[in-house]
Write a structure and sequence with these properties.
- Two copies of one chain form a homodimer.
- Chain A is of the alpha+beta class.
- The first copy, chain A, is 39% helix and 24% strand.
- Chain A has 15 helices and 19 strands.
- In chain A, the strands form five sheets. In chain A, strands 5-4-13-14-15-12-16-19 form an eight-stranded mixed β-sheet, with helices on both faces.
- In chain A, a hairpin with a 3-residue loop joins β17 and β18.
- In chain A, α9 packs antiparallel against α10 and α13 packs across α15.
- The longest helix of chain A is centred in the C-terminal third of the chain and has 32 residues.
- The relative contact order of chain A is 0.12.
- At the A-B interface, β12 of A face β12 of B.
Chain lengths: 444, 444
């Protein structure tokens, strides 16, 4: 759409059928994804944000389920920030409907890319219905073909292409908590539900129909793992012991568990993203990340926005556009890839580590006192459009304040006292005088 | 040979022709490689060390060439340790001659692997002379097919295969300094010759015929780079300015420069190395590293030794043999891969950083005073068979001693004084009481 707006003729080749058809076959089971400020701003920029917001369920904070009962609600920041949970298929359908309004975008469905000639930007496509193979040449080729990108595989054959794929030892299985007999969601629909258990995790988001999709994160191998859960009884026992409040709401637990396979989790990084002034990787094809920070789709949409900014700068000098695009984006997507992989540990340990929880409470307190100065890293990532690397740099500086508070004697008892509040004021004044604090946000 | 010694029937498939034939075509130009203690010990274990030592040129230390003249000779350690420079083809020829003595090793030359079926350990081979394709099944498959391993490419298609290939921005071109008109080597044949120039480097080893092979390390792109050297004059000017003492000895400099292409430098890491109890990656196929530490071949030979140790432990339970092999080896080869990539900077900066040189001098002094306690990391890597990870752990602890010496006031002037020597004694006593120092070396 960004390209069509600039009056380029755009051809979109899609391996699966037209999602707008109700009977469209072959698509992946519809998984949940989360949109946040970063992604929504880009969708707003192309005029489709409101349509998509209507399809999404806002989530205003986290709720930890302990084996002994519900923990307190932990709101995201102090400003009604929300994540928006949406079905992948519904998001794509809305985007397709919007894109169809551009006369210079042509869609080609059921076309699987089977060969790429980078030097001539020619791709070979096989029709999944008819088997017919056709070739398509274009001046520019954007590879938005996902974490297992075919185009990237051809770029890998070039000399000095850097590439890494790193899998977590963990995987996940998606399961469903249907609406209750009363037609209501089993748990609050506007909360992210977390069952953190140290080395494993259950995580749930409500869908538009009030069912809840939960993801069970487990190691692939080991004492308690996908490999160790062999029988329906094993699965039921795990849920009874570890997630007791879900069991009454999951009538099909065992059937569903064994009907679905465990998905693996990969982080993909590579460079260069671009080939001369002809080919560019974009979205997951350029940077596959794990879902723990909810940033995958958002980072992909942001790629489009940044690429459009580079077009503003360099006109149709595509060599410069591409070089700038990679230079601006890659450090940011490398960072979110690393952060996302680390964040799993944080999600898992959320109930078990009292120092960690104290740190979060103190962070929230400092943020309440100085909402424009001290913003937790999670909020900068999810609820701002600040570049990821800039967010991380600010976090590196500001975390010194929290380190010093955590080092105070008996901080466990005193953290909410007037006395400590006075120390917070002093530390923040010091912080502000040390750093010429940049309030402005610049995306590129 | 390790396998043949255990009476396995071994089939070796080699893409190129039999190197023992004088006219064997298709082999890579013979590059130099270095053997050290680690590799020689393994060669000794299979009874071929002496034969190979005779083909190698021992190098007892480094000689830095500055633009103003020769620097002092820097011996490796204090114990006559040496690196052994050998031509890759001569090394391989000697190994082939030795292997031919085993009746249960069969060689298949000119056979290129074009397909691998991991599940049935069946490989398809195309004969490079006749074009005929054959299939070969075996119970076990060892992929010793190098950094661009075909077998590994098939393993990469399995789920959750971790893989990374990282290229340096630098490459190298090999050039020759022939023997002088007097029939002598242009520079001392038993020294590693270094022309470190901060951002680039020339490095030379003498060959058996007293010619010297030098490698020019330059960035691929930038102000001074392989891309910037366009004409014979550019090349001559670089050598005249940066490596003036070589110029008189390089009559074919420009022709040779443009006749050879620049080689890229890649670090490859992956996991798993093994597939069930059937397939194992070994050598560069499992861990491609850059040549700066001279450890590539040594690490590959060590793989064989460790695999043999695992066979001692687990008999022919190959599932356990392979699991143990990967567990013992991978942390070590990951480490040497990282160290080798970093070592380039150390080689380049060797003349420019006076603090760095002082640190090396102090290290040497401490090593002279305590030759069995303080051993520089380079010596532990090159002149011992200590596992790489263990060497690094010891370095982490012992470097504190040098850090504290470097922090002394006016250490630049005082480092060789009796006073500082007294401090060294105290620090080492402290170090010895802090760490229960392990003198024993255990390989596995």
């Amino acid at each position: 759409m960004y390209l069509a707006r600039r009056e380029y003729q755009v051809d979109v080749f899609e391996r699966y059928s037209d999602l707008r058809r109700l009977d469209a076959p072959g698509h992946r089971a519809s998984i949940s994804m989360t949109l946040c400020q970063r992604g929504l701003q880009v969708l707003g920029d192309i005029g489709v944000e409101e349509a998509i917001r209507l399809l999404a369920v806002p989530v205003y904070g986290r709720r930890v389920h302990m084996t002994t009962g519900l923990g307190p609600f932990q709101p995201y920041g102090n400003r009604d920030e929300a994540l928006y949970n949406i079905s992948r298929n519904e998001l794509n359908r809305a985007l397709l409907l919007h894109a169809a309004c551009f006369p210079n975008i042509r869609f080609h469905y059921d076309e699987k890319c089977i060969d790429v000639d980078l030097a001539t930007t020619t791709i070979s496509l096989q029709n999944m219905q008819t088997g017919v193979i056709t070739r398509h040449h274009s001046d520019l080729l954007f590879a938005a073909d996902g974490a297992y990108s075919v185009v990237r595989r051809y770029m890998q054959r070039l000399d000095r292409f850097n590439y890494s794929q790193r899998y977590l030892d963990y995987g996940y299985r998606e399961l469903t908590i249907p609406v209750t007999a009363m037609g209501e969601p089993a748990f609050d629909r506007n909360e992210l539900h977390l069952w953190p258990r140290g080395h494993y995790l259950l995580l749930g988001f409500a869908n538009r129909d009030d069912s809840i999709t939960v993801s069970l994160f487990l190691p692939f191998a080991g004492a308690l793992s996908f490999a160790s859960l062999q029988t329906p009884e094993d699965v039921r026992q795990l849920f009874a012991q570890s997630f007791p409040d879900t069991l009454a709401h999951m009538p099909w637990l065992e059937e569903e568990y064994f009907a679905r396979s465990a998905n693996s989790l990969v982080t993909i990084q590579c460079s260069p993203w671009v080939y001369r002034d002809r080919v560019a990787l974009i979205g997951d094809a350029a940077h596959g990340i794990v879902p723990y920070y909810g940033q995958g789709a958002n980072a992909g949409f942001e790629d489009c926005f940044i690429l459009d900014c580079c077009l503003d700068r360099h006109g149709n000098n595509w060599q410069s556009v591409f070089a700038d695009y990679e230079m601006l984006r890659k450090p940011n997507t490398d960072l979110i890839g690393d952060l996302a992989a680390q964040h799993f540990t944080e999600l898992c340990d959320r109930v078990n580590d009292s120092r960690f929880l104290l740190r979060k409470q103190i962070e929230r307190k400092v943020n309440q006192l100085y909402p424009n100065v001290y913003i937790p890293i999670y909020s900068m990532i999810a609820f701002s459009s600040r570049p990821y690397t800039q967010a991380m740099e600010i976090e590196r500086r500001q975390s010194v304040v929290i380190d010093r508070l955590m080092a105070l004697d008996q901080i466990e008892e005193r953290w909410n006292s007037a006395e400590v509040e006075q120390i917070i004021h002093e530390l923040i004044q010091e912080f502000l005088s040390d750093h010429c604090y940049e309030e402005t946000v610049s995306l590129v």
